[in-house]
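Researcher: I'd like a candidate sequence for this fold, 194 residues long. If you have to choose between options at a position, lean toward the conservative one.
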């Protein structure tokens, strides 16, 4: 994969040049010494089932018009972010430096460790919870996971539903974990942690 300048995507202080950069104000410091060793996958579409609009970007940048859709009223005032968003066609956006703590997992725990936001990277896949995802998204996700594994001591990739069971259901049964693990280039040693 080469960028416009002919060079491979690389990292700049937690920002990946393989992604379009749109800064979210919704982030904070990670705990001192936190090892960033987990990836949490999510799904999102706004309103649910609608793809391709700018509503997700607006949500993550606190610019969503809450009155524009009845569903938005149900999340009015929400301040959230993920580090990355992978669109249906595989286009990848980054909102928060991976060195910073994004606000994606909420109350959560992984293998007994609470507060996943402290030590994880959040990746949103544009999609409907329980629905399927596009091959281009698996390809883009694997490229992103490879890049992340080069920069952070990643141990596992898991789903929001697995770190917040009973409270969250995304990305849901339509996400094909076997396809992800079998995808060419999937980083060896990155365990599905659910
Ligand atoms: Zn989620």
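Model: Candidate sequence:
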């Amino acid at each position: 994969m080469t960028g416009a300048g002919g060079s491979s995507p690389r990292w700049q202080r937690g920002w990946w040049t393989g992604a379009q950069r749109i800064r979210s104000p919704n982030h904070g410091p990670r705990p001192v010494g936190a090892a960033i060793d987990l990836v949490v996958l999510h799904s999102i579409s706004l309103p649910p089932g609608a793809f391709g609009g700018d509503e997700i970007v607006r949500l993550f940048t606190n610019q969503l018009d809450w009155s524009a859709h009845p569903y938005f009223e149900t999340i009015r005032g929400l301040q959230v972010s993920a580090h990355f968003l992978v669109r249906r066609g595989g286009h990848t956006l980054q909102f928060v430096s991976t060195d910073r703590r994004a606000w994606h997992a909420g109350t959560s725990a992984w293998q007994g460790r609470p507060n996943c936001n402290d030590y994880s990277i959040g990746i949103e896949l544009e999609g409907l919870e329980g629905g399927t995802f596009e091959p281009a998204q698996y390809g883009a996700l694997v490229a992103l996971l490879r890049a992340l594994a080069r920069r952070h001591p990643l141990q596992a990739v898991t789903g929001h539903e697995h770190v917040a069971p009973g409270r969250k259901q995304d990305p849901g049964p339509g996400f094909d974990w076997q396809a992800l693990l079998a995808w060419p280039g999937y980083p060896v040693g990155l365990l599905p942690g659910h």
